[in-house]
Amino acid sequence: MENRINIQQVEPAAYQAMFGLEKYLSTSKLDPILLELIKMRASQINGCAFCLNMHSIDARKIGETEQRLYLLNAWRETTLFTEREEVVLALTEQVTLIGNHVSDEIYDRAAGLFSEQELAQIIMAIVTINAWNRIAITSKLMVG
User: Fold this and answer.
1) Which of 48, 100, 137, 140 has its CA 20 to 30 A from that of 55?
2) What is the share, in percent, of the chain residues with pLDDT greater than 90?
3) How many C-beta atoms lie closer than 10 Å to residue 33's C-beta?
4) Crossing angle of helices 116-139/49-61, nearest 10°?
5) pLDDT tens profile 112-132
6) Do 134 and 44 touch, CB atoms closer than 8 A?
7) What is the predicted pLDDT for the residue at 16?
8) Is 90 exceeded by the pLDDT of residue 4?
């Protein structure tokens, strides 16, 4: 498999705008592990090998366990994730698979566990990784 277009090279301003979203998220008050779980779960759903590779490395660097990473796609079947993490994972799935819409139940649970600012940041994190997944998959960014 070969890379297709290198958008970063062809349209650097577009990439800088995407990096701006990443910078915003890195300055948020959200738990960095939570951000990596969002990135990993959306990337699993989207089948983005490039992002899965990058974010599994990043998650381990900040203390995420191998066990939780291995079981992330089956998070409902474990007791390894906190209530807040479970709600964020459910919201990540629904936003990523937006054609099925975001249920009031999941949104209301998230709104009950997070401040409005945190919820806005979570939504932006989900939207941002989905955009990165689409860029990486479409342009066939290679792992490594």
Assistant:
1) 100
2) 90
3) 16
4) 130
5) 999 999 999 999 999 999 999
6) no
7) 94
8) no
Domain ranges of the chain: 33-139
Sign of the C-alpha dihedral computed for residues 41, 144, 23 and 5 taken in this order:
negative
**CB neighbour class for 51 (10 Å; exposed up to 12, middle 13-18, buried from 19):** buried
The C-alpha atoms of residue 84 and residue 38 are separated, in whole angstroms, by: 12
For residues 77-113, b (16+ Cβ closer than 10 Å) or e, as one string? eeeebeebbbbbbbbbbbbbeeeeebeeebbebbeee
Whole-prediction pTM value?
0.94
| Architecture label for domain 33-139 | Up-down Bundle (1.20)
